[in-house]
């Protein structure tokens, strides 16, 4: 039974929020569009699950890439998932395969690159903070990752690891057109796509292909048998079961606008609380500084130093102020008014009075 004529079903099938795989007549398509990372668009866990679903749905899978790269460890996990898959996979570089995305493209499967696409190789980038040992550990980790990536590129290009390191891991971005990538052995072929301006920058290429993604990717009709292979519908025995499940998903989709509104409201409340907390914290820091200046632990010249310390590290800033000794004025300690007669002068006056009486 073909449900292509059911408008409600067709609209539902086209919603990407439920289907990350695009079924086709001869192959499923998995999209690696966006930044790579566990908190970004392309996540290793999602890709692994999509691969398993696609393998069950179709023996042939097209993986299409348009990504500026991202986290190395997430990229390596995706690389291994693709490399170890038993499916017939072809990689297509639609727009940009930069940094870690270029490594994923070289997972051992056939790679086709759009005539207008760009591929980019460069050194591993990262950062850390801490003491000297922690900094050195970060550098060792980056060097180890670069060593691993050099091996991956070298295996694909048929070159020595050190040659790859000297050519592409020199701190610069190395952008390659499709014909250059083909000559270097990084891809297996070039396919035609809708033309792009010859002077398009990598950023423009990335955006153009992302915009094309908004257009329908699968114009063929999907029948009930194909949909039943998906995990959500595997327990549907009859057509009524199937439509009931679709209805549940439609209900879930209808809740999204309300949930979005609630998230927006909660974010607004959180900002109010955060602003108040920031104001209270600033007032508390000011009182600490005022008290310290009043009892002489700091003065106008040293106040900015402790003000910055409190702002960056409240706990240690308070400890630093507590360790300072108060400096009370001598007149306060002696409790002598500046207008009172000193003991010496008082004694001299008494002697003079006695002499005068004689």
Radius of gyration: 35 Å
Low-confidence stretches: 1-19, 216-221, 330-334
Q: What's the average pLDDT?
A: 78
Number of domains: 2
What does the main sheet amount to?
Answer: 8 strands, mixed
Strand content: 5-15%
> How many separate helices?
14
Order of helices and strands: HEEHEHEHEEHHEHEHHHHHHH
Question: Considering the protein shown, what is the CATH homologous superfamily of the largest domain?
Answer: 2-enoyl-CoA Hydratase, Chain A, domain 1
* Helix/strand structural class: alpha/beta
Shape: elongated
The beta-strand count equals 8
* C-alpha termini separation: 138 Å
Helix content: 40-55%
CATH class of the largest domain: Alpha Beta
CATH topology of the largest domain, anyone? 2-enoyl-CoA Hydratase, Chain A, domain 1
| Second-tier CATH architecture of the largest domain | Alpha-Beta Complex
Short description:
This protein folds into two domains: 7-122 and 173-234, 2-enoyl-CoA Hydratase, Chain A, domain 1, CATH 3.90.226.10; 237-358, no CATH class. Helices cover 54% and strands 12% of the residues.
Describe the structure.
The structure is a single chain. A hairpin with a 4-residue loop joins strand 1 (21-23) and strand 2. This protein has 14 helices and eight strands. The protein has two domains: 7-122 and 173-234, Alpha-Beta Complex (2-enoyl-CoA Hydratase, Chain A, domain 1), CATH 3.90.226.10; 237-358, no CATH class. It has 358 residues and is α/β, with parallel strands linked by helices. Strands 1, 2, 3, 4, 5, 6, 7 and 8 form an eight-stranded mixed beta sheet that branches. The longest helix has 56 residues, at 239-294.
């Amino acid at each position: 039974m073909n449900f292509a004529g059911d408008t409600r079903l067709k609209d539902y099938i086209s919603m990407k929020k439920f289907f990350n795989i695009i079924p086709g007549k001869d192959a499923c398509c998995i999209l690696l569009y966006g930044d790579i990372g566990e908190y970004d668009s392309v996540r290793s866990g999602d890709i692994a699950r999509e691969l398993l679903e696609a393998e069950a749905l179709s023996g042939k899978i097209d993986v299409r890439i348009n990504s500026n790269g991202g986290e190395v460890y997430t990229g390596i996990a995706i690389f291994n998932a693709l490399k170890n898959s038993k499916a017939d996979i072809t990689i297509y570089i639609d727009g940009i395969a930069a940094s870690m995305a270029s490594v994923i493209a070289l997972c051992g499967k056939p790679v086709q690159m759009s005539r207008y696409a760009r591929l980019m190789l460069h050194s591993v980038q990262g950062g850390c903070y801490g003491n000297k040992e922690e900094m050195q550990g970060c550098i060792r980790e980056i060097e180890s990752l670069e060593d691993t990536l050099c091996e991956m590129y070298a295996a694909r290009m048929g070159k020595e690891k050190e040659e790859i390191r000297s050519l592409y891991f020199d701190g610069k971005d190395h952008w390659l057109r499709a014909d250059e990538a083909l000559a270097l052995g990084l891809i297996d072929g070039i396919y035609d796509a809708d033309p792009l301006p010859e002077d398009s920058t990598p950023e423009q290429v990335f955006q153009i292909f992302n915009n094309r993604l908004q257009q329908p990717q699968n114009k063929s009709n999907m029948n009930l048998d194909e949909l039943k292979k998906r995990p959500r519908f595997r327990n549907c025995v009859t057509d009524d079961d199937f439509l009931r499940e679709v209805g549940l998903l439609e209900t879930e989709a209808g809740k999204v606008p309300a949930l979005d509104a609630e998230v927006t409201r909660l974010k607004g409340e959180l900002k109010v609380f955060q602003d108040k907390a920031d104001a209270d914290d600033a007032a508390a820091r000011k009182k600490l500084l005022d008290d310290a200046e009043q009892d002489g632990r700091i003065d106008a010249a040293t106040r900015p130093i402790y003000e910055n310390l409190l702002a960056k590290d409240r706990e240690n800033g308070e400890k630093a102020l507590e360790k300072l000794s108060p400096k009370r004025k001598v007149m306060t300690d002696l409790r002598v008014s500046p207008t009172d007669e000193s003991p010496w002068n008082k004694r001299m006056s008494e002697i003079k009075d006695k002499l005068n009486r004689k």
